Amino acid sequence: MPDGRLTTFAFGPFRLFAAERRLEKDGKPVRLGSRALDLLIVLVESAGEVVSNHDILERVWRGVTVDEGSLRFHVKNLRRALADNLRDTPYITNVSGRGYCFAARVERLDREGMPGSNGASLAAAPNLPIRGRAIVGRTNNIELVSRELSRGRLVTIAGPGGIGKTTLAIATAEALRPSFGNAVFFVDLAPVEDAALVLSAVVSVLGIVRSDDEPMAAVVEFLRNRRLLIVLDNCEQVIEAVAALADRIVRDTIGTHVLVTSRETLRVEDERVHRLMPLECPPDKDDMSAEEAMSYAAMQLFVDRTTAGFGGFVLDDALVPAAAEICRRLDGIPLAIELAAARVEFFGLSGLARGLNDMFALLTRGRRFALPRHQTLRAALDWSYHLLSPIEQAVLQGIAIFRTTFTLESALAIVPGPATTADNATDAMANLVAKSMLTADSTGDVVQYRLLESTRIYASEKLTASGDKPETARRHADHHLKLIEAAPADWESDAGKAWLRLHAGRIDDVRAALDWCFSNTGDLSIGLRLIVASARLWFQLSLTLECRDRVEAALRFALGRPELDGAMEMRLQAALGHALWYSASEADRLERAFRRALALADEVGEVPVQLQALWGLWAARRALGRYREALAIAENYATLAEKAGDEAARLLGGRILGLTHHQLGNQGTARDLSEQVLRVGRRAGNTLNSEFQVGHEITAATMLTRILWLQGFPDQATTMLQQAIAAAEQSDHWYSMYYVLCFAGCPLSLWLGNLAQAQHYLDRTVNRAAADRWRRCWAFILRLRQSGEREALIASSLEPRVDLNTAQEIAALASAATIPMPQPDDDGSDALWSLPEVLRVNAEVLLWQGGPDAAAAAEPKLLRSLDLARAQSTLSWELRTATSLARLWYRNGRIAPARDLLAATCDRFSEGFDTADVAGARQFIAQWS
To answer: Which helix (H) or strand (E) element contains residue 50?
Structure first.
């Protein structure tokens, strides 16, 4: 073991500087991991002797439970680093059943004139406290701090109260004790509030007995040639004195290392800072198992401390949601988690999770002999708060109004007051970060700030007590209104994406602002403008249900009040209509909202809202399957858009006209319109996207996927689908992807006969309550297609009838005990696009049911289907019908007409020869030739 002198071990071309934790080969550094270096020091110090596995594990992994497999792994890595396998005589040998031995000749070199050469001995014994419990979740931090202390001689562990700074410092010092020859000293400055007493505390711990007029000089002189580690713990209240002492020690001594714990950094030269972060918490995730939850350090600590105080506690899968919520609400702060664990026996997990809304009253029973400020969560925060200047306290109170991350710009829009200018508020923010009261994330383009939840609640209480909360809430709401009103019109532009990256997480602040605005003491005018302005953000974040509910609540709250004039109600009704559409609400509610919006827009001549309302009325008719009426509204929309000269509205008009013509069976017109939308949309990028809509490129490519298949171009349809999927992926919007997969991906896969691809697309759809009917509808049809002949025929009957007004009813069949065979029904309502297939399947159902008149009844349906498919130029439907009719003729002995009909139809295909329909028809032709 080192004896306090700076010892160098030499073997072969290597030099091992144990005290500095450095290995060199031929004068050049050798990179080793922390554990491998510890292992090498242990073996070299005992060169020629066998060190047992148990002793190695105790010395290298002190306080950490590992198996011998880990030891073998690190020995292997160490041998590789030493190129041990290239030598005739290995450096490290394994003595079977006993342990490991460093077998090479080692020379110990003591460097004169370095620490310890003055022969002075320490008057006091090392006093590092003994840890009563194993440290949880900080192994990496111990290694990082140890590494920093090997690179420099002053390291500060900084972090908020209760984060575990002292625990980490003691564990690190414990791990480094051998490197300092046991010369590790712990100075607890928690009781010291007078800066003049800092030196006295250090002198007392080190046992310096000499008297000197300058105590700083006396301490430095005592330490000048000694190698030791001093831990200065809990320094924030005497930070200036500690900074002066640490700076002087590092400058004027050779081997003394200083490890500081503080909520604030020292800000002196050569200081290395280790910011201690909260323990990692389990995410808010459904169906998380107890085993998975225990992989998170915060949960490990919570379970460990709960079990220690409540012996019967066992974490199972059912308890995970409540336990994980507790860890998240407490931000992974070890002190708060320990305080919470102490209350589990009394409240139970669920009660404790609910009670955290009043966490300061709940978390009040700490360890009996802990520091007073660690007895309760409030006491810990009181300690930090009282160390702040008045301006820092005021700024902390102001930023407590934020619910999530915020920028400096946002903070400066909230906190300035009579005594708070932008300049001193900025300084105060910087100081709050330095004092670990505020966290800063500088990984993005703009620095984002955040208060830990416990700190936010504490500071919010102070804000309420100050009487400034109403005005602060007003500024907070007004700021978010201006922020959203200034957002780019298009989320998919570069500017829009940048805005979303920076501000999308503000939705919790928007919620809080709206809650205040619509309270009895709030500002209704700001609230109404904010709910309208933020509607696009709610939709982008796929929060349409919540948006719908908030708009409806706003209309009820504001009814009869002067703030709700015609223009404001118009905008609210339009926003409500869009929310109803995307939340799959009843068509009559949708139509009422848009009719009211249109009436109000007509009164004031508000063309943009007139266009929105016409779109909504078209959507309502579409939802009811009334496409002839929808076509008239779409034409009115297109006319108004042309008259207004609104290019974005013109493009949307083309979209809805194309979709309506497609549903009505006018595939040629639908294709022309959709291709035009696709060309213009791609040329203009995303600059012409309309509010609340899926992007033009996505919808046009989706529509063309369907049309191209119907017209007999399956390969082109597949290519177009991939383009639609790529555009949806780029949009990073769940509804866009859902739209593509449900309206093109699943249908095309089924049409092509690729059931595995259909399942893949189903798996990619997000299971949202508002959209679940589509997922369940296609999943049900796919299940039928994968079953027997009868079920496959039922699927064929249902598939062409899938529409907005039928999907819910079809999906509901999935839960039926038995599924009846649908009765032949030629009424396809206005959805004429699939009528050829409806007629064909009806004929197949008649033939399957059998009977003397089945063939006679089926043939007219097939002939009508064939004529309709030809009239619509839907070659794919025509092929299916020709195949069914040819098979019927073949069974009736009309072999040549059957073959000729099928051959003439197949010959018109220029692609898609390996698809199920074309390949099957060609097989029949070959059999009948």
So the answer is: strand 50-52
Q: What's the CA gap between 635 and 656, in Å, rounded? A: 9
Give the model's confidence band at 664: pLDDT under 50 very low, under 70 low, under 90 confident, else very high.
very high
The encoded tokens of residue 551 equal 């708009």
DSSP code for 406: B
> Residue 306: left if φ>0, alpha if ψ -120 to 50, beta else—which one?
alpha
As given in the structure block, the two tokens for residue 896 are 């040549």
- For the chain, the residue count is 929
On whether the CB atoms of residues 75 and 102 are closer than 8 A, the answer is no
Name which residue leads in pLDDT, 300 or 107. 300
* Three-state SS at 504: helix
CA distance 317 to 319: 5
Q: Please tell me the predicted confidence (pLDDT) of residue 767.
A: 60
> DSSP string spanning 520-580?
TTS-HHHHHHHHHHTHHHHHHTT-HHHHHHHHHHHHHHHTTSTT--HHHHHHHHHHHHHHH
Dihedral sign, Cα of residue 648, residue 649, residue 651, residue 655: positive
3-state secondary structure of 279: coil
3-state SS, residue 8: strand
Q: ∠ CA(80), CA(85), CA(89), 5° rounding?
A: 125
The string of DSSP letters for 300-350 reads HHHHHHHHHH-TT----GGGHHHHHHHHHHTTT-HHHHHHHHTTHHHHHHH
- Tokens read off for 426: 């900025």
Question: How many angstroms separate the Cα of 524 from the Cα of each of 398, 517, 521, 533?
Answer: 22, 5, 9, 14
pTM of this prediction? 0.67
Return the exposure string of 472-488: e unless at least 16 CB atoms fall within 10 Å of the residue's CB, then b.
bbbbbbbbbbebbeebe
Q: Enumerate residues 6+ apart whose C-beta is below 8 A from 30.
A: 14, 23, 24, 81
* Burial of 68 from C-beta contacts in 10 A (0-12 / 13-18 / 19+): exposed
- Answer for the pair 163, 335: CB distance below 8 angstroms, yes or no: yes
Contact present, 614 and 640 (Cβ < 8 Å): yes
Percentage of the chain beyond pLDDT 90 is 48
* 864, two tokens: 């009508």
Distance CA 845, CA 790 (A): 10
Residue-wise pLDDT for 490-538, tens only, equals: 776 778 778 888 888 899 999 999 999 999 899 999 999 999 999 988 8
